[in-house]
Structure formats: structure tokens, C-alpha cells
Design brief:
The protein is built from 19 helices and 52 strands. It is α+β, with helices and mostly antiparallel strands and 974 residues long. The strands form 13 sheets. Strands 15, 16, 17, 18, 19, 22, 23, 24, 25 and 26 form a ten-stranded antiparallel beta sheet that branches. The protein has a six-stranded mixed beta sheet with strand order 11-29-28-27-12-14, sandwiched between helices. Strands 40, 42, 45, 47, 48 and 50 form a six-stranded mixed beta sheet that branches. A hairpin with a 5-residue loop joins strand 18 and strand 19. It is globular, with a radius of gyration of 30 Å.
Length: 974
């Protein structure tokens, strides 16, 4: 390197040392400007502008055409770490190639999403990998390893994990708080992030919009206490869009934006994604915080140093450009997209209908039979393959008959029929503004794209109307597609046009609802919330609050009739059902039910009635409750939206060219009654996910069938206290080649003295292997004992492995265990809970409570939910030779009475109410502020001794921080 080059341009130096040199050269104002997502150039130093954030969940998104791989939940269904690593590598190479021709493409990749799929009604289910933290961590590590690249010091891209932490609801997502008890935090939520961070494959994380235990995730103390202790580098923290403003706006957590920005910086947020490309607002807030002394220059410098170190690692300041093996749309990428789509297909049921024989006549029917759907985080398709395309190519167009199954309707109003006017020369096919869906034009923010206004709006004809394809996607949410294949949509000018290729956008403008009114129906446009009216210059949405036109809906053709006719002509029927990823379950919108939409339910029933040889293929971003279909149909399959090669891959599986090997990455429940509340994050208390669910699921976690069969030999198990090793030979006992996903689960068999609820079994390791007929392979797993068998000991605030016997279960799913072996672990014996200082949040059992923020900065407290009494139970409290007094720290902001009652549980000395002997009743005085804690002391009635369970009942509005027992004392409050 030339001696006149500054150290920050020396690639031989460590990234952090280079970043420190560059930081020292920046002025205070230049440093502040670096905190915004769109960091400006510093021309005097030759430093270019930089943007944090590039979506790339399953391909490069929002920047125009790119290779589109299966949705993330589909990649999770492959259970194939190496395949997913190769997908990440391909995406990372395409990011580099696209950036070479368009500098707006960012290298700081905001992917993947590692939020656990604990609740199948979450709208963003498609973005996650699994309900299991170990599988999620493994798949995320593989994907980010590919995105990052193999260079020891240079990053192909800088991946950021989303969304820290406990984020599984779109309903009130910026104001709701997830109550996450310590065991759920340490055993379930954190491991999904910790795996890839410890592996060194990620550059940082993005906090979620919601709050956890009453504190916004953008102020989470766990960023410092957990995240930044897991690896050798200092991970970057990038805010979610608009979230910094939420702290003082929708959340009202802090009074001013200066206070909110300062608090986020102190908590560890480095890059502020707020107000789009306008950095002036954030810059002003940071300067205001500095002037008020809310932060010091050291807080700004720490954040900027992390951001600059990431940029150094990306090779931005190297004398020689680093291209990260850039490549775009290569034959290898196309083949990989097909392979990933094939491996994502899960065979749920098969009574011998599949695979399809050559020469059969196939009816392909259903609303998704000729669709290749994209989602909000997809790129634009370079090529597409629908199920219809794939089956025609595989079996021959003359052997495949198609029926969509949409209802065909006319809409009549007092002036006549709704009609679509001619667009004029070339108008219908022109690429007008907003054409091509949300990814068109390579927009940095597809939410800013607008609908087409170059086409004429709908009119009313007295002679003949347009026949629309009407689809009800569930809950009465409709789309209407005109004869030329374009969906009715509403642009900014309010007119209704047949203009959209597909539903899409941040606010979908292509969905409607029919509301009964005055003997007909009002047509309400969901995007604006307004009714459709007929005006002199065309059909449009009415003004806010105004009534619309009353329409009569005349059904020309029922979709069920079309499906029945096609089914009768065929030897086999393939019904393709599922969801549109932009409608009824997506970012900003949770689902309300597991049920398949009624229109699609009627279609598979119509096909089955006409031809019993019917297979149902669900192409969806989430599970459905399809118990009737499981009982009635001989074959069912599921695949996530599979990207550009989805149809080709599905046809290969149906035909038997590929034996299905995908496995469910989450439990498919039998019905809505099996689900906890959407905001109930306590998987232990609510007994949810495969780890704790006590019922019988429709399809269990890890389920998936094959066209062949596999046998398992007796496993060999060894455990030295540090590592658990399991070896097992697996044999393909069938007649065709196939993939088996070998799944290792562990469970506690007899851990004497451990009273905590433990998982039924928990995934410890997995491996997808391919075997030819008769072939065998020994599979070996080695996992750390602490990780596989340990749990969070709330009594002592640390990880512990209980002594006793455990089982290693190995098999094809969480419910299909083929072999099991019991082994012993010495572990650490249970110790009683010290009672000198008990954190209220460290309970063993609870009812009617939630965790809240102890202070705005850190710590948890417990508060009752609702007006009734709430209860905490603490197991095995060691009162020693006798405790004479108790000290309680509690806060009560609201007026009214509040009381804490302490009882000994299960000592045979029940009180008058039969709930255990009362030790003390403590009245909590009003402190006037939820963070102002009062210390209340009381003498105990009959001092307890020995090891006992403690039951704490909370009455009234209060926050309990901690309690402690000691020697005698008179009651007092301070």
C-alpha cells in the first residue's frame, strides 16, 4: 500500500482499527450524520454515501428482476442446511452483481427473519424458518454463512437478523407487549438469534416494533447484556423503519423525540431507519440530545465505529475493489431455485395415489393452479413456472385439462352493467406507472409505487357488462379480475380501473368487500375503506363517509361446476389451493382462523365428488386446519410459495421424478381451539408448539412422507457430561431413491427433584440424507449436553443440567420415533431457592399476571392483568431455620387499594380459604409513579422454616419487583 494512504484504506489492518482511524478523521457533525440509514458521502475523505438495509429474504427484493427462491418457511421445510447455505451464497452473489450496475442496491442485507413460528396465525409466518429454535438457528446460520461468504476478513454482504425479540403479532405490533418469562427467553427466544451470532455469520440485528415485558425492543437492555457478549465482533443494530419515532409517538414511552433517540443510542441502536431518505429529522434529534446532555459524544462514536467497521469488512475502503464473487441469474442459480423448490415440498398424506403414472390424464384445478405468487419480500420474476405449466411440460399439454374455479360474475347498478372500456392503442399492454406489481422499477421502497392512471376507469354500459372472475380469499375479502387478466384496482385519483397484474403493495388496492344493502350489495374498497360509486367521468370510490352505488351480483358460472366438469374428464385431479401472500395474512395483518377459505374448501369437495382420485396441494405461507380433507382425500401435499421454479418442482414430485423429502417446520393444529391467544408468548404456560402441546395435532412437527421407506438400526449413545454423541444407521428399505430427514430429539425421563415442566421432547440435531434403494448410511450427531439437556434455572439465574436419565429419540418426525436409547447424566443437583432476595419475575408458576418493565432502562417486574387477583408460585424456597420478616418492593401509580398476600403452599396448614397458611398481608401505598418503588416490611405470622413453596397473591393495580425474607422486623413502609 502507498505510504500516503490513510490506515482506514489499508486492507491488512483489522476492520475495527481501520474504522477507528476513519472515525477520528470525521468531524462531530459528520459523525452524527452517519447514524441515519442514508449516511451521506464525505467527499473530502473520498468516502461514498452508504445505505443500511437491503431486503433479501429469499432472493434480492425490491430492486427489479432477480432469482426468486422459495419463501423462507419453504427453505425451513427443506431441513437442509447445506442447500440453504448455497441459496444464501447465490443471493449474496446476486446482491454484489446488482450493486455493480446499480449503486442503490445495498450490501447491508436485512435478512433472514429468525422469529420463531410459535403461532400459525401470525401474518408474517412466511418469513420465518420454524417454530423450533434449534432448527431456526441452524437454517439461519446456513443462510447467513452463504450471504456472508467464505473470505476470512471480507464480507460478501453484511447480514442482519430480524426482529429482536419475541415478535409474532401484526395486531397492534408497535404498541403491544410480549410477556416473556425468563425460561421462555433463555430456552426459546434467544437461542434462535444466538446460534448464527456465535457462528460469526451475521453483522448485526434489527429490533422489532413491539415491546417485551413493557419495554420497547429498540431500548432492550438485552442488546448489551446478551447479543454483544456472544461473539468476537461488535454487532451492528439497525432500527426498523419508523420505530425510533414510535418511541415517543405511538408507544408514548418517552416524552420527547430527543429523549427517545438518546435512549435508543444508549441501549445500543446504531443506525436509525426513520423518515425515509430525509436524515435531517434524526440528525436534529441527536444534536438536541447532545445539547441537553442526554447522551455524550462517546455514545455517537460507539455507534458510528460499529457502522464503519462493518463497511470496512465489506471492502468499501480497500484500494482494490472487492466483488464478493458477483454473479447474476446463472444456470447454477436457476438449477438451485428448482432444487430448493423440490426439496421444500412436503407430502402430508398418500394412500397410493402418488406418484402419478406416465400417460395419465390430469385435471389441474383451483385458484392457484396457474399462479406463481410473490410476497412482499420477493424480487421481480425473471421466469415463472406455475403448477399448470409444470404439469403440461411433464405430461404433455394434451394430457392436462385446467379449470381455475373462480366464480364468474356480472355487476349491475341502476345505470347498467360495470364495463371495462378499451384502453386505446397499446394501452392495455403498456408499462404505465405502477405496472408490474410492487417490485417494478427497482424502487427502494415499493410502498411508494402508485397504481396506473394511464388506463381509462370502469364505466357503466346499458348493453353488456364485463364478466369478472370473483375470488373470496377468506373473511369476505374479494378480488375481481377482468377478462383481459387485470385486477380491479384503485389509483391515487380514486378511479377504479382494470389495471393490476396481481394484488400487491404495502396497502393492497385490489381487494374489495360486498356488503348487503337495500336488496343488493355495496362494494367497499378495502384499501381506502370507501364505497364504489358511479360518477359521470367513470367508476370511482366515493368521498369519505358517502354511500356508494348498490350493485346486483349476477353469477354467470360457479367455480365448483367448472371444477366438476374438468374432474370428470381426468384420471386424476390435482387441486391447488392456498393463499395470496398479499391478502389475508401478511405483514401488518394477522390471520383470524386456520380454516381454508370457504370458496377453496368447496372446490376440493367438488373435485372429490366428481372424481375420488383427487390430490390436494396447498401452496401457502402458513398451515391450515384441513381435517376433512385429510379424511376424504387419498393424497395431500404442502409447499410454501416456491419461487420461480415452483410449478416445475411440484410436477417433478407429483410425477415421481423426485421423491418428496420436505418436512413440516411447524405444527399443523387440528383447529383454532388448539391455539393460545395470539399475544400469549408463554409457550410453557399455554402448552403450545410441539415442545409442550398436549393435544393431537393434525400433522406433527417434522412430519413428511416419501415414496420410499427407511429403516433405523439401534442407536449407539455416549455421553461424557460435556457432549452427547448418537450414531444410527439408516437404510432405504424401499424401491426408489429418496431423501430422509433424520431427526434427533432428547427428553427427560427421570430427573428426580426437578419439578419444572420440561418439553415432551426437543430437537437436538437433524440431517437430510439421500439414499438409493437398499443403501445404508451411518448418521452421527454430537451436541453439547448443556445445550441439548439444560434449562434456565430461575431460582439461581443460570443455565443448569439436572442429573438423571434422559432419552435420545431418533426418527422421522417428532411423533414418528423409530429408535430410542436411555442414558444418564450426572448434572448439577437441584438447590433450594435462596429467599434473601427473590426477583418477582423469576417465578415458577403464574396465573393472571404479566411481566412489565422495572424501569425504562432495565429489569422486569410483575403486574396483575385485569381486575381479579393474580398469583405467583415460587418452588422450593429455603427459609432455613426460620424467617421472621419479609421485605417487598412494589410500585402503585393508580389510586385505590392494593395488597400482597404471602402464603405457604402445601404444608397441610391451609387458611380459612383452603389456599395455604397466610404468612403476611402487605398493603402497598400509592407511590404516584409506576417506576417509584416503595419498600414495605412486615413480620411473618408463624415464621416458616425449611424448604417450602411460596404462593404470592396480588390484589389491585401494582407492580411487584422483588421480595426477601430475613430476621424479625416490625411492619413499616419507606
Amino acid at each position: 500500500m502507498s505510504t500516503d494512504q490513510p490506515p482506514f484504506r489499508d486492507p491488512a489492518l483489522p476492520a475495527r482499527e481501520r474504522a477507528a482511524d476513519l472515525l477520528a478523521r470525521l468531524t462531530p457533525d459528520e459523525r452524527v450524520a452517519m447514524l441515519h440509514q442514508f449516511a451521506p458521502a464525505v467527499e473530502r475523505l473520498g468516502v461514498a454515501a452508504f445505505r443500511t438495509g437491503q431486503e433479501a429474504l429469499h432472493g434480492v427484493a425490491w430492486m427489479g428482476p432477480a432469482t426468486v427462491f422459495p419463501q423462507a418457511v419453504g427453505l425451513g421445510a427443506t431441513w437442509n442446511d447445506e442447500l440453504v447455505r448455497r441459496v444464501g451464497e447465490a443471493v449474496g452473489r446476486e446482491v454484489r452483481a446488482m450493486r455493480a450496475r446499480d449503486p442503490r442496491v445495498g450490501l447491508n442485507v436485512w435478512s433472514p427473519t429468525v422469529n420463531l413460528l410459535r403461532h400459525p396465525l401470525w401474518g408474517r409466518n412466511e418469513e420465518g424458518y420454524s417454530e423450533d429454535p434449534r432448527l431456526t438457528a441452524a437454517i439461519a446460520t446456513a443462510y447467513t454463512r452463504g450471504l456472508r461468504g467464505d473470505h476470512p476478513t471480507r464480507l460478501r454482504t453484511a447480514p442482519v437478523l430480524k426482529h429482536w425479540l419475541a415478535h409474532n403479532n401484526e395486531t397492534d405490533r408497535d404498541t403491544s407487549s410480549a410477556s416473556v418469562r425468563p425460561r421462555v427467553l433463555h430456552e426459546y427466544e434467544l437461542p434462535a438469534f444466538r446460534g448464527p451470532v456465535e457462528a460469526g455469520t451475521v453483522a448485526g440485528v434489527m429490533p422489532a416494533y413491539n415491546l417485551v415485558n413493557g419495554r420497547p425492543n429498540h431500548l432492550s437492555p438485552l442488546l448489551a447484556e446478551q447479543l454483544r457478549t456472544w461473539c468476537g465482533h461488535d454487532p451492528v443494530v439497525c432500527s426498523d423503519a419508523g420505530a425510533p419515532s414510535n418511541l415517543a409517538d405511538s408507544q408514548g414511552y418517552l416524552d420527547t423525540h430527543e429523549e427517545a433517540t438518546a435512549a435508543a443510542l444508549r441501549a445500543g441502536v446504531d443506525s436509525f431507519t426513520d423518515h425515509g431518505e430525509d436524515s435531517s429529522v434524526i440528525i436534529s434529534r441527536v444534536r438536541g440530545a447532545l445539547e441537553r446532555g442526554l447522551i455524550g459524544q462517546e455514545h455517537v462514536d460507539a455507534a458510528v465505529l460499529r457502522l464503519l467497521a462493518m463497511r470496512c469488512s465489506l471492502g468499501e475502503f480497500d484500494p482494490e475493489p472487492f466483488d464478493g464473487d458477483a454473479a447474476f441469474d446463472t444456470p447454477g442459480h436457476r438449477e438451485l431455485a428448482r432444487e430448493a423448490a423440490e426439496q421444500a415440498v412436503v407430502l402430508l398424506r398418500n394412500d397410493g395415489l402418488l406418484p402419478l403414472a406416465d400417460g395419465v390424464r390430469v385435471a389441474v384445478v383451483g385458484l392457484l393452479a396457474d399462479e406463481c405468487k410473490l410476497d412482499w419480500y420477493s424480487g421481480t420474476l425473471l421466469r415463472r413456472s406455475t403448477p399448470l405449466d409444470g404439469l403440461r411440460a411433464r405430461f404433455g399439454a394434451d394430457r392436462v385439462v385446467y379449470a381455475e374455479g373462480a366464480d364468474r360474475v356480472l355487476l349491475r347498478c341502476p345505470g347498467g352493467w360495470l364495463a371495462v372500456p378499451e384502453a386505446g392503442p397499446g394501452g392495455a399492454d403498456a408499462e404505465g406507472e405502477g405496472a408490474g406489481g410492487p417490485a417494478a422499477g427497482g424502487a427502494l421502497d415499493p410502498a411508494l409505487l402508485r397504481g396506473r392512471t394511464d388506463l381509462p376507469p370502469l364505466t357503466v354500459s346499458a348493453d353488456a357488462g364485463e364478466e369478472f372472475a370473483l375470488v373470496d380469499w377468506g373473511g369476505g375479502v374479494l378480488t375481481l379480475r377482468a377478462g383481459r387478466g387485470r385486477y380491479l384496482s384503485v389509483a391515487d385519483d380514486g378511479f377504479v380501473r382494470a389495471s393490476a397484474e396481481q394484488p400487491g403493495g404495502w396497502v393492497v388496492q385490489e381487494t374489495f368487500e360486498l356488503e348487503p344493502h337495500d336488496g343488493g350489495h355495496l362494494l367497499r374498497h378495502r384499501g381506502t375503506g370507501r364505497y364504489v360509486e358511479v360518477a359521470a367521468d367513470g367508476v370511482r370510490v366515493a368521498a369519505e363517509g358517502a354511500a356508494g352505488a348498490v350493485f346486483d351480483v349476477e353469477t354467470v358460472l360457479r367455480g365448483e361446476g367448472e371444477v366438476r366438469a374438468a374432474a370428470r374428464e381426468a384420471d386424476v385431479v390435482v387441486v391447488v389451493a392456498g393463499n395470496d401472500p398479499h391478502i389475508g395474512g401478511r405483514e401488518t395483518e394477522d390471520r383470524t382462523t386456520l380454516a381454508l377459505p370457504p370458496q377453496q374448501d368447496r372446490l376440493w369437495r367438488a373435485a372429490r365428488a366428481a372424481n375420488p382420485r383427487t390430490a390436494l396441494v396447498l401452496t401457502s405461507a402458513y398451515p391450515y386446519a384441513i381435517g376433512d380433507a385429510d379424511e376424504a382425500l387419498p393424497a395431500l401435499l404442502w409447499t410454501a410459495h416456491g419461487g420461480q421454479a415452483a410449478g416445475q418442482a411440484l410436477a417433478a414430485v407429483l410425477a415421481g421424478d423426485v421423491s418428496p423429502g420436505g418436512r413440516l417446520p411447524q405444527t399443523w393444529y387440528a383447529g383454532d381451539a388448539d391455539l393460545p391467544g395470539l399475544l400469549d408468548y408463554d409457550i410453557i404456560g399455554s402448552r403450545t408448539t410441539y415442545l409442550y402441546f398436549d393435544g393431537t395435532p393434525l400433522y406433527p412437527f417434522g412430519h413428511g412422507l416419501s415414496y420410499t421407506s427407511f429403516g433405523y438400526d439401534e442407536p449407539e449413545v455416549s455421553c461424557d457430561g460435556e457432549a452427547l454423541t448418537v450414531r444410527c444407521a439408516v437404510t432405504n428399505t424401499g424401491a426408489v431413491a429418496g431423501d430422509e430427514v433424520v431427526q434427533l430429539y432428547v427428553r427427560a425421563v427421570d430427573t428426580a427433584g426437578c419439578r419444572l415442566p420440561r418439553p415432551h421432547r426437543a430437537l437436538a440435531a437433524h440431517r437430510r440424507i439421500r439414499l438409493g434403494p437398499g443403501a445404508s448410511r451411518e448418521v452421527e450427531f454430537t451436541v453439547p449436553v448443556s445445550r441439548a439437556l439444560g434449562f434456565w434455572d430461575v431460582a439461581h439465574g443460570r443455565w443448569r443440567v439436572a442429573p438423571g436419565s434422559y432419552a435420545a429419540d431418533i426418527g422421522a418426525s417428532s411423533a414418528d420415533i423409530r429408535r430410542s436409547a436411555v442414558f444418564r447424566v450426572d448434572g448439577e443437583p437441584r438447590a433450594p431457592r435462596p429467599v434473601a432476595g427473590i426477583r418477582a419475575a423469576d417465578y415458577d408458576e403464574q396465573s393472571g399476571t404479566e411481566l412489565v418493565d422495572l424501569s425504562r432502562e432495565r429489569g422486569d417486574a410483575v403486574a396483575p392483568v385485569g381486575p381479579g387477583a393474580a398469583e405467583l408460585v415460587f418452588h422450593d424456597c429455603d427459609f432455613g431455620t426460620g424467617a421472621g420478616s419479609v421485605t417487598v418492593e412494589a410500585a402503585r401509580a393508580e389510586p385505590g387499594e392494593a395488597e400482597i398476600v404471602l402464603r405457604l403452599d402445601g404444608d397441610g396448614e391451609d387458611g380459612e380459604d383452603g389456599q395455604g397458611r397466610v404468612l403476611a398481608r402487605l398493603s402497598v401505598p400509592r407511590s404516584g409513579d409506576r417506576y417509584a418503588y416503595t419498600t414495605v416490611r412486615a413480620a411473618l405470622e408463624g415464621p416458616p422454616s425449611g424448604v417450602r413453596d411460596l404462593r404470592v397473591t396480588l390484589h389491585g393495580s401494582l407492580r411487584l419487583a422483588r421480595l426477601g425474607f430475613g430476621g424479625p422486623s416490625s411492619a413499616e413502609a419507606t
